[in-house]
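Take a look at the protein record below with the fold in mind.
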Amino acid sequence: MANRGQFGSKFGFIMAAAGSAVGLGNIWRFPYLTGENGGGAFVFIYLCCVLAIGIPLLFNEIALGRLTGKNPIGAFKDTGSNNFWVIGAILSLCVSFFVTSYYGVIAGWTIGYIYTTLMGVELSFAEFTANPLIVLPLFVGFIGLNLLIVTKDIAKGIEKASKILMPVLFVLVLVVIIKGLTLEGASAGLRYFLVPDFSKINAGTFLKALSQCFFSMSIGWGIMITYGSYLSKNESIVKSALWIGVLDTTVALMGGLMIFPAVFAFGMEPNQGPTLVFQILPQIFSEMPGGNIVGAFFFLLLCIAALTSTISMIEVPGSWLIDEKKWSRKKAAWAVAIAAIVFGVPSALSKGANDTLTNMSIQFSGMTITSFMDIMDFIWGSFFIIIVSLFVCLYVGWIIGPAKIIAELSEGTPSFNTARYAGVTAAQVWSFFLRFICPLVIIIVILNQFNVF
């Protein structure tokens, strides 16, 4: 068997897994979805999704990975899966790969914005994204940065990078929040973000909140199965998963605290969609003393957040090539990166550079999704993530049964299956959520999206 490597420490694993979870999903995607879906009420539903569905599924995926010591497809095959259930594992590789292809484009924008903000270049977001001579080299450059990390051994590459980059990220986010909260009129933004107005919720809000929970926590991508496979048997999955959940949710909330007070202080609209961060923040920074330095720092932070996520996405198909095809780590990483660049070019050109790719649209249950990149984000970043999560929880809950996973979760945390609270163990509660609550909620949300209700 190829030497797959292993995380050297619990802190390294938590920082790498939190790094995967904490990315553009928290700082770019969460604020704009919150802005489009009514503020505080969306935040409330999102937190419910994290607690009731996100955390149980996080336990499940990390434990399945460590139990088998394999990539997602290997993990399913090793536990006796038939061809039908393996579809879920194959789709998880597709999710990680296809999201990498357009996520890398957005991450490339952050590199461009480090420069434009620092130098005070006046450039509208639409002009910036419509210039292929800017966006394509930035995209390729960003994927290249990933290669520098992913081609190294796990402890030397992913773990080392995450241990340094993640704490820096937290500090930078705090700096921007403190600055934003001191602006005049910031309190209206705080109210919008933290006080729920449930009249703003509709059926679509639930799908968006649930898919954001999975997108943000890296559930349904195969990432947590893959990272779990590198986790030592001595570490507690329960404690690690709770840490990942807490860190991820904290950064998402910090992302909102960073954006909304400033949006309201400057009299902007919160429902700007995916361009919220790129259109609003440069204007905010330009009005701050020393704003170009703070702004460049912020986009550096966004780039770091994106990097800690994409290294985990490349790792998923990469680990399959290492395990199943016996490729070297270097060869696997290069192959995935080059393929991601090829598949990412249409996304890079779909924000103004090419009319056909920019204006193409699909209809889905009353929604119109326009541009190649937004269609990719809907298919792979929203819809299939939820489908994969359903596959994994039904497979463990009903096909192989929760017993093996409970045994894995009890290693490092014996109390998980022994300590009783009000007569039940944590393992029994987890098993009930995995078998009944999680699949039921996911199925209702999917059917709802097809206008069944």
Observations:
- The two ends are 50 Å apart (CA to CA).
- The chain has 19 helices and four strands.
